[in-house]
Structures are given as C-alpha cells and as structure tokens.
C-alpha cells in the first residue's frame, strides 16, 4: 500500500512538473497584463502574407519606417517554421491616450525599385500582421446570419494597399495604405483589478496623399486635420521609374469594451461557415457511427454462426471450408517483412504524436493565443515518440522471424523522418530563393537535425532494444511448412479493387474536417475546434479498424491468406483519397498565382498524405492482427 501511495505521489508530482513546463514554454502571455494610464504599449510587427502566393515575408522586407535598432523578439520553433518574425516598431502608444487626428511616423522618399516592391506586394493582395499584447491586428468584417441580423467578426491582418481592378478599385491603379486608424478596445474593473486590459486590436487602413511636411514629424498634415470632412486623394503607386515620397501616419483611439479578457479571442475564432461546420461534423458523426454499428453487428452475427458450425462439426462429417481452411497459412510471414515493420513503427510514432498533441490541444495548452505552440508540440512529441516506433517496429519484425533487427531499427529511425526532411529541405530551397520568411533558417535546420539524430534516433534504438529482449508471443495455430495454393479470386476481391474500396470509408470520416484544416492552413485562418477534431480522430480509428476487419474477413473466406500487407494498405488507401481531395481543393478553393507556391502546396500536401498513410495503415494493421488472432484462437484445430 505504501509503495502504491509513493508511486501515486511521484506520478502526481511528475504531472505537475510537466504541466508547469508546458505553462512556462508553451503558454506565453496567458496571464492578463494590466496597463496603467500612460504606460507604454509596445506594437510589434510580424509578417506579410498573401493567399495568392502563400509566401510570407518579414515586415521589414519592405522599406517601411524602420527603428534605429531592430530587435528580434524571442520566437519558438513553431513560429520560425511558420514564418513568423516578430520585431519592434517606432509606433508610440500609451495606455488611455488617444492620438487625433494623426501622428507622423516618418516620411521617406523611395527609389523606383522600392516603389516596384510595394506595387508587387499590393498586386498580390498582401496583408500586414501586427501584434499588441499578444493580440493580432485585425480588420472588422460585417456578416449576416440566417435571420438577416448583422454581426461582426475579425479578419486577421489588414491590407497593405488597394489592388487595381479589384472590387474597391476599378481604375487599374494600385494604391498603398500609408495611414492606419488603430482602435484599441480595453476592459476595466475597479473592483477586480487595476488598470486596463486590452481585449481588441482593430486596424482601419487608409490611402492618403498627405501634404508635404518636409520630414517634420511634429507637424500635423492638413490632410489629417480635415480628412474626416473633405474627400482626400488616395496615394497611388506610380508605374515605371518614378520615385515616390510617402508620409506614414497613424491615429490611436482607446475605447471601452464589455468583452472580458478571457473572451477576447472569440471574434478572431468566429468564421463564416460556423453553422455549416457544426452541421457537417454532426452529420458525419451520425453516418459513420451508424455504418460502424452495422458493420460490428454483421460481423458478430456472422462470426458466431461460423464458430458454431466449425466447432460442432464431427471429424468424419465434412471437409473444412472458408476461413478455417487457411489456418495453417494465415500466420505465415509476409513478403518484405522489414519494410512492413518499419512502416508500422512509423505509424505508431505518428499516432502517438497526434494523440498526445490533440489531448493537450483539447485541454487548452495549444490555443491560438499560444503562437507557434501547436507546431512546436508536434515536432517535440514526434521526436520523443521515437521510442514507440523502435519498440513496435522491432516487435513486429521479431514476430516475422526477422534476424536483421539492427537494420530494421536504422530504417525505422531514417525512412519516414528522412523522407519528410528531404521534401521539406527541397521546398525550403525554393523558399530561400524567394527570400521568404517561411524559409527555415540554416541554424534551425541544424537544430532539427540535432533533435533527429541526438534524441529521436537514440530513442528508437532504446525502444528497439527492449522489444528485442522481450520474448515473442505464440500464434494460436501452427504454420504449415508448404504454403497452400490460393484459388482464383473474383474480380471484386482483387487486391487493388478491395484496397481502394476499403480506403473510402476512413476518408469519408475526416474529409469535412479536412476542409477546415486546409482552409486554416492556406487561408491564414485560426483553427481552434480541437474538441471536434478529437472526436473525428476517434471516429477515424473506429472506421479504419472496422473496415479493415471486414475486408480481412472477406479475404480469408475467399481462402486468400496474404492479409498482412492488405490490412495495412486497406485503411492506408484513405491517404490516396486525401491527396486527390487536396488536388480538388487547390483548383476549386485557392487562388495561387505562382509556380513556387503551387509546388509548396503539393509538397506539403504529399507530406500530409504519407503521414496519414502510415497512421491509418497502422491502425488497420493492428485491428486486423487482433481480429485474426481472436478468431483462430476460438476454433478447434488438430
């Protein structure tokens, strides 16, 4: 009893330590900050993004007003991989102090090349991203619900300029937004806490041809003083080799809001398809649960009938038929056992990473407020999960009577991570060529390789060593020395057809959620419904398991005992449909205009597909292994 108490206390302390570690490293800015009156509020600049190129750039890649010393804020691994580069700015903001009508940030004269750079970014509809108190800048968007009632949501960032030939501008000339109206929403509660808590960061950009102030930052342009009542000329971007002088200005408005600090992200997380999203998820859930219930019922009734028939047979009555006939070959090792073991181990690694990540996300550790936390957690957990990959890969390989366990371990630690790394490295070369902030710096690549070879690979060997030392369990039936000849199969039981048919149902369980995930990634939206994602993940596990068991049962009834690879590929085929859907999504939903951007999209989509392949394939494999062991342990075999 005392030992159990000590173990429980130790486990509780370990959980508290892990929780504190995640709070320190993964939850920056969770505690609200109370700004006192006239206290300086820092505006940080982040990046420039566009849905037309999918190539993020550093804010200061364009010649905006630059501070005397640019300071890079501390970024985690996830922020670097996502292309976030957070830096300081010269905007002077103080809590509770409005700036009206405007204040000059700087006046600069740009060369023709710099003007062209601005024009290109405006032409691709780039949006500017800022941060105040860990809140991203947003523009207000008004929508109507089903009752024709208007409500507002936030759209992340604000446009760099107005593109020619757009809905707002029909004259074909690009205009640059050189003035921003910043509205900071705050909440106060004299009883609960002192000061102001920022609960909203709205930016309304404008293009204004300011009066010439000759660089005097203290002089307010006449255009600022009268722009509310007098129509102003927009600041057009000249074509050709003309220079351009731009005066950058801003205004600040502080406005009280009833929004509580804990709910300040709500407007960022609302989206136009919220009702469709809920309906689709519930509909998908009901359909999949109904199908899996039907499959389970049919399988149980059919198998019970088989058990009764086989066990009631007298030895002299009749010859064996159906799946019992192949009992002497059903556990014969598959072809290419090493490759199958490696894929199973990689699938377990991806499964462990996905499951733990979603658990932390559901608990709120990886909310959108924790910028870069999701990507960081996925990388770290994938590296740590190498121990599971080594254990299960070697365990399977030993089950197949393999002798080259060291080779199996090395391939487990190299094949899947190496494939992903090579694809990412090639894509990264193109990002370097485009000088995009989405390119992972060389130092970060070295750090990732160090994580791979310094932590993941040793953990794979560690897990493999324990699996090698552990004895392998016995199969319920013996394997014959001479393999049985497989009869000719009907067309619908051919490997290709049955595998492709089996992959449809798992894909059907996730394709609704896949749409929102792709929209979040490529539409630069916030994805936050991790509870629904976890439910879909559970549905995916059940669907992969049941469809693989059904197809395996039909295969064994047809006296085809080559089920090892078939069980992996049946559920793994859903990755093929995922990649096809990503192609469909590219041509129907995206507006990508650059070849490099298209290459990035399909490269990352391929990584998603192979990750989904090893994940679903492994689920189907273990479900089928459990099923085959179970049914052959229930029959009497001489």
Radius of gyration: 30 Å
For the sheet with most strands, the description reads: 5 strands, antiparallel
Shape: elongated
Number of separate structural domains: 2
Measure the end-to-end span. 47 Å
Q: Look at the structure and give the mean pLDDT.
A: 82
Helical residue percent?
40-55%
Structural class by sheet pairing and helices: alpha+beta
Total number of beta strands: 15
Helical stretch count? 17
Tell me the β content: 5-15%
Note poorly predicted spans.
1-29
Could you explain the architecture of this structure?
With 638 residues, this protein is of the alpha+beta class. The chain has 2 domains: 32-269, no CATH class; 274-292 and 337-478 and 497-632, no CATH class. The chain is 50% helix and 14% strand. It contains 17 helices and 15 strands. The strands form 5 sheets. Strands 2, 3, 6, 7 and 10 form a 5-stranded antiparallel sheet that branches. Strands 5-15-13-14 form a 4-stranded mixed sheet. The protein has a two-stranded antiparallel sheet with strand order 1-4. A hairpin with a 2-residue loop joins strand 6 and strand 7. Helix 10 runs antiparallel to helix 17. 37% of the residues are buried. The model is unreliable at 1-29 (pLDDT under 50).
């Amino acid at each position: 009893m005392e030992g159990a108490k000590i173990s429980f206390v130790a486990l509780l302390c370990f959980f508290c330590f892990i929780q504190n570690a995640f709070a320190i490293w993964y939850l920056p800015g969770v505690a609200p900050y109370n700004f006192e009156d006239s206290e300086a509020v820092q505006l940080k600049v982040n990046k420039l993004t566009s849905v037309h190129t999918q190539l993020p750039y550093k804010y200061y890649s364009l010649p905006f007003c630059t501070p005397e010393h640019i300071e890079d804020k501390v970024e985690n691994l996830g922020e670097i991989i996502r292309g976030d580069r957070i830096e300081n700015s010269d905007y002077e903001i103080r809590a509770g102090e409005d700036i009206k009508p405007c204040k000059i940030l700087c006046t600069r004269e740009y060369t023709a090349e710099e003007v062209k750079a601005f024009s290109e970014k405006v032409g691709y509809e780039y949006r500017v991203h800022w941060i105040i108190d860990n809140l991203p800048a947003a523009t207000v968007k008004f929508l109507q619900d089903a009752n024709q009632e208007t409500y507002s949501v936030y759209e992340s960032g604000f446009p760099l300029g107005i593109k020619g030939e757009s809905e707002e501008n029909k004259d074909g000339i690009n205009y640059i937004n050189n003035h921003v109206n910043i509205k900071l929403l705050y909440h106060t509660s004299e009883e609960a806490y002192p000061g102001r808590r920022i609960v909203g960061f709205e930016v309304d950009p404008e293009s204004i041809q300011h009066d010439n102030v000759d660089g005097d930052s203290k002089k307010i342009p006449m255009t600022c003083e009268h722009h509310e009542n007098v129509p102003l000329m927009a600041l057009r971007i000249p074509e050709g080799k003309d220079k351009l002088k731009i005066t950058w200005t801003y205004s600040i408005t502080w406005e009280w809001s009833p929004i509580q600090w804990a709910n300040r992200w709500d407007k960022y997380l609302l989206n136009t398809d919220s009702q469709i999203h809920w309906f689709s998820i519930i509909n998908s859930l009901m359909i999949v649960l109904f199908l899996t219930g039907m499959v389970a019922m049919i399988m149980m009734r059919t198998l019970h009938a088989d058990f009764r028939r086989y066990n009631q047979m007298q030895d002299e009555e009749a010859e064996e038929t159906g799946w019992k006939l192949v009992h002497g070959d059903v556990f014969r090792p598959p072809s290419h056992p090493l490759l199958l073991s490696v894929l199973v181990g990689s699938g377990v690694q991806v499964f462990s990473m996905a499951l733990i990540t979603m658990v932390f996300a559901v608990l709120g550790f990886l909310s959108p407020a924790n910028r870069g936390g999701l990507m960081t957690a996925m990388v770290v957990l994938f590296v740590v999960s190498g121990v599971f990959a080594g254990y299960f890969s070697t365990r399977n390989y030993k089950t197949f009577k393999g002798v080259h366990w060291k080779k199996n371990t090395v391939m487990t630690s190299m094949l899947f991570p190496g494939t992903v790394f090579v694809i990412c490295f090639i894509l990264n070369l193109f990002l370097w060529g485009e000088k995009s902030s989405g390119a992972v710096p060389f130092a970060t690549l070295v750090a990732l390789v160090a994580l791979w070879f310094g932590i993941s690979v040793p953990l794979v060997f560690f897990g493999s060593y324990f699996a090698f030392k552990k004895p392998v369990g016995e199969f319920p039936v013996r394997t014959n020395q001479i393999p049985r000849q497989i009869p000719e199969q009907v067309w619908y039981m051919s490997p290709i057809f049955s595998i492709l048919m089996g992959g449809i149902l798992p894909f059907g369980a996730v394709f609704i959620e896949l749409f929102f995930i792709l929209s979040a990634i490529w539409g630069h939206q916030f994805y936050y419904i991790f509870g629904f994602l976890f439910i879909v993940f559970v549905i995916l596990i059940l669907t992969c398991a049941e469809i693989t068991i059904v197809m395996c049962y039909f295969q064994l009834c047809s006296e085809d005992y080559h089920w090892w690879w078939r069980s992996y590929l049946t559920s793994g085929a859903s990755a093929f449909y995922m990649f096809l859907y990503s192609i469909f999504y590219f041509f129907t939903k995206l507006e990508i205009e650059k070849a490099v951007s298209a290459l990035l999209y399909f490269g990352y989509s391929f990584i998603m597909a192979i990750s989904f392949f090893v994940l679903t394939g492994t689920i189907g494999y273990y479900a089928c292994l459990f099923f085959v062991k179970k049914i052959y342990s229930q029959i009497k075999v001489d």
